[in-house]
Every structure is written in structure tokens, then in C-alpha cells.
Amino acid sequence: MIRSHLVRNSLTLSFFNRGLSSHAGRLEGKIALITGAASGIGKATASKFISNGAKVVLADVEEELGQATAKQLGPNATFIPCDVSNEANVSDAVDFALSLHRRLDIMYNNAGIACNTPPSILDLDLAIFDKVMNINVRGVVAGIKHASRVMIPQQSGSILCTASVTGVMGGLAQHTYSVSKVAVIGIVKSMASELCKYGIRVNCISPFAIPTPFSINEMCRFFPGTEKEKLEKMIFDLSALEGAVCETNDIANAALYLASDDAKYVSGHNLVVDGSFTCFKRLNF
Ligand code: NAD
User: Fold this and answer.
1) What are the pLDDT digits (tens) for 44-98?
2) pTM of the complete model
3) Exposure pattern of 163-180 as b/e (b: 16+ CB <10 Å)?
4) CA distances from 170 to 81, 155, 165, 174, 210 (A)
5) Is the dihedral angle over the CA atoms 226, 230, 235, 240 positive or is it negative?
6) How far apart are CA 136 and CA 162, in angstroms?
7) Which of 2, 30, 60, 127 could staple 66 via S-S, CB 3.0–4.6 A?
8) Burial (Cβ within 10 Å: 0-12, 13-18, ≥19) of residue 236
9) Rounded Cα distance, 115 and 93, in Å
10) Right CATH number for 31-210+246-273 from 3.40.50.720, 3.30.70.270, 3.30.9.10, 2.60.120.330?
11) Residue ranges around ligand 1 (CB below 6 Å)
12) Rounded CA separation 211/12 (Å)
């Protein structure tokens, strides 16, 4: 009686585990490099990829935070300092991933900054424009270039980038930031067309506002002295979708889909994760 109970339970358990591992292993054996991975969306995605069987190299300009994040994510996470606006750093990060794991399956160009540019084009300091472009656009191009030099000989790979709803709709953010994200969406389409003959897919994700250090800092500029919790609530209150808010995990789920074979025929796509915000027409009556 006890034995049959144990056998039944162990069968149930092994069936359950089988179900779990097939769900958990969507990136089993894959090697990923994620930029801007010390925090926010990059960190959440690194964690998601690892829990789905990948080994992840985290690249970020914030060395101390990056090391701490890698430690927190466990043995399948490794950190390398990298400023994406410096091509040699990006190249080194790709070579580091290669030296550790011998291949690169997923490159996620996620690092990006906001900017404190004035609302009017007449007051724009083009030095700030250049700084944002160097990180948000040049950094993405460098990531695609150096991932491609590994993925082309492999004849496979999935490249992801973080764009933004501000690249889809005008007037949501300062022009410089919006322009940088429009550029990311454009690069993705162009690179998807160039790299398809090598079996490499290129896609981007356009998140809606999520409270991360990036967006909280940006909000602080508009509402100086406001507490972090209040700013977080203000960001969540922007949500158009009743009963739901945009969280880093929503972007990590989108990245998991695009990185995995579930999206094997999806390339050149901008996956907008915005709870319908960009479809939402506000009527003034
Ligand atoms: P975050 O501040 O939590 O993370 C950004 C990370 O990028 C940080 O760890 C930072 O150190 C790193 N970084 C900054 N400059 C870098 C550089 N030159 N080289 C390497 N790393 C650098 O912010 P997040 O919200 O997770 O931002 C990630 C991406 O998401 C950005 O591209 C951002 O534009 C985009 N995004 C964010 C939101 C949002 O509301 N949070 C919305 C749409 C798009």
C-alpha cells in the first residue's frame, strides 16, 4: 500500500517535472550576451533566460552593480564591464562570451539612456544629442556588427534590441530619445533583411513606461523632490490596460519568446509591449 502510494507519487512527480523542464528549458544550452544587464529590463531578462536553460554574459558600464547582479543570478551568469558606445568594449564583450562558451546564440542590445534635453528643438545642444546617439544607436549597431561576425559563421542566431513606444509614437518623450528609438526600429528592419540569408533573426521590443532607475531618474527631472514610490505609482498610472501595469518581467517574457525557437519565423519585427497604449485614441469629450 505504502509502496504503491510512493510509486504513484514518484510517477506524478516525474510527469510534473517533465512538464516543468520542457517549459523551463526554452533556451536550453543557449549562450546569450545582454547589454545594460546590471539593472531593470536587462537584469530581468538575464534571470528569465537563465531559468530557461541559457548561460548569460551580462555587459554593463556599471561595474560594481554588474558584478553584484551576476553574483545574485548565480553560476550561469558572468559579468564583463562594457560601455556600448565604445566599439572595442563591445567587441571584447562578444569575444569574452566566445572564449567562455565557444558560441553566441543570442545578442540582446538593451543598454540605453534617457536624456535631459530641452523640449524645444531651438534649445537643443547637439553634444547631448550625440551622446544619446552614441549609446542608444551606435551601441546597438556595434552590438549587431560584433554578434554578426560570430553568428554568420555559425549560420544561426537571434539578435534583439530594446526600442521604445517613443519610437513608435511622437510626443511621448524628448525628441532626442525618440529619434534614437526610431533609429533602433529602423536598424532592426534593415539588419533582419541583410542577415536572413545566414539564418540570423533580428527583432526589437518596444516597452511602455516601466519604473526602473532609467525612468525614475527621468521622472525626477520633471518632478524634483518627489518620492520614488510616488514616481513609481505615477508611471504605473499611465497604463491604458485596465487591471495591468507594465513590468520588467513582461519585457523579459517578450525577449524569451523572440530569442527562442518559438519565434523561429519571426524576424524584422518590433514587438510593442504597451497594453494597447499606442492604439489608444483619446477623445476629448
Ligand atoms: P535601467 O536603468 O534599469 O537599466 C539600464 C542599464 O543600462 C543600466 O544598468 C545602465 O548602467 C546600463 N547602461 C547605461 N549606459 C550604458 C552604456 N553606455 N553601456 C553599457 N551599459 C549602459 O533602465 P531600463 O528601463 O531597464 O532600460 C533598458 C532599456 O529599455 C533602455 O534601452 C531604455 O531606453 C529602454 N526602455 C525603457 C523604458 C522604461 O520605461 N524603463 C521604456 C522603454 C524603453
Assistant:
1) 999 999 999 999 999 999 999 999 999 999 999 999 999 999 999 999 999 999 9
2) 0.92
3) bbbbbbbeebbbbbbbbb
4) 34, 37, 9, 9, 18
5) negative
6) 9
7) 60
8) middle
9) 25
10) 3.40.50.720
11) 35-36, 38-42, 60-62, 82-85, 110-113, 135, 162, 164, 207, 209-210, 212-215
12) 41
Residue nearest ligand 1's atom 3 by CA: 40
Residues composing the chain = 285
What distance in angstroms lies between residue 168's CA and the mean position of ligand 1's atoms?
18
Dihedral sign computed on CA atoms, order 71, 249, 164, 216: negative
CB 152 within 8 A of CB 103: no
Angle, to 10 degrees, between the axis of helix 248-259 and the axis of helix 40-51?
A: 50
Beta carbons of 140 and 130 less than 8 angstroms apart: no
